Amino acid sequence: MDLKSYEPFWLIKNGLPASYPSLKHNATCDVLVVGGGITGSLIAHQCIQDGYDTILIDKREIANGSSSATTSMLQYEIDTPLYKLIDMIGEKGAVASYEACYRAIDQLHDITHRIKSQAGFRKKDSLYFASYKKDVSWLQKELEARRKAGFDVQWLDANSILKEFDLHHTHGGILSAQGASVDAFMLVHELLQYNVKKGLTVYDKTQLQSVNYGKRTHEARLHTGAIIKCKRIIYCVGYESAHMIREKFVNLISTFAIVSEVVPDETRDYKDILIWNTSKPYAYIRTTDDRRFLIGGEDEQFRNPDKRDALINAKEKKLLRTFEKLFPNIPFDVDFAWAGTFGETKDGLPYIGTHKNFKDSYFVLGFGGNGITFSLTGMEMVSAWLKGKKHELTPYFAFGR
């Protein structure tokens, strides 16, 4: 499935940071990671850190799936508000899920520091504002749920938001003291290059076709005819999983984004804030590390790549109007416009765990608006499982929950 349209900003900005061969000979490893996006690169990073002989493969070029199209807003807030998630799965699981995403941002900060990343990771606050007056009551309910759970949040009224951010047409909102942004495409390449030096083997343009399961060792057959013998398989394949797993467990959504020309003066006051709203679908705004504005949203049901791509021009105009309404004093000259596809789950949570039809395997599928933070939680979970340990989030992220 084509997960992106035209050429996303990150591909043009970064070019080709690294190149990898395809696999044409047989190989062996402890752990085979399938998928070379941000999730696969993080899982491989953890596996190497834990001492496993690890191979990573991707059927495309590295990071050319959804990791090239993501807007990379890193938030602990899950698409399902905390107070609603508590009603759905209970307070323990809901708070633990939010706490895991909160920790994930600090974990990624530590990782980027350790590998000396140049991918523009930056800690930021997050403003979640009410688009309509009717949203204020439930948004304040969300504020209290987060406060009760111990998160650092405060309420800003519309005048305060206007004064502090020159953000118009709001009805107040929640300011959270935890968030970040990054260039995920560049970070994938940095993670892989860092770990290649520590023993990771990476192959792109290498497609997994089938797996023959043995008692202790399994044979992963590739389209090149080569075979990888491995003990465990970790699938970090995102939306491709919808074709691998028979039951319907995810809803595919098309999303759109535009990036402005470089505007150093105008972006200066917004470099430390992420902004999103209560509209359905919601809009989200950030700056890039090279001093541009980015706005995304206008989500709708995914049908096929051609129909999605045909909407880009119209969606670009709508996103531009949204930005101009919220920031009438800031110019936005569109430099890039693209579309991507992401997965939406019934509760806003990812699918991370085992599946009955895949022996000795784990899926790490960070669906929803928190894909990258969920991937970091997946690192923790997979690391524990490979060591025979349990993880508290297992039942909440499991298939069939």
From TrEMBL:
FAD dependent oxidoreductase domain span: 30-379
Pfam families in UniProt: DAO
UniProt keyword annotation of Cell membrane present: no
GO MF terms held by the record: oxidoreductase activity
Broad EC category: oxidoreductase
InterPro entries on file: FAD-dep_OxRdtase, FAD/NAD-bd_sf
Protein name: FAD-binding oxidoreductase
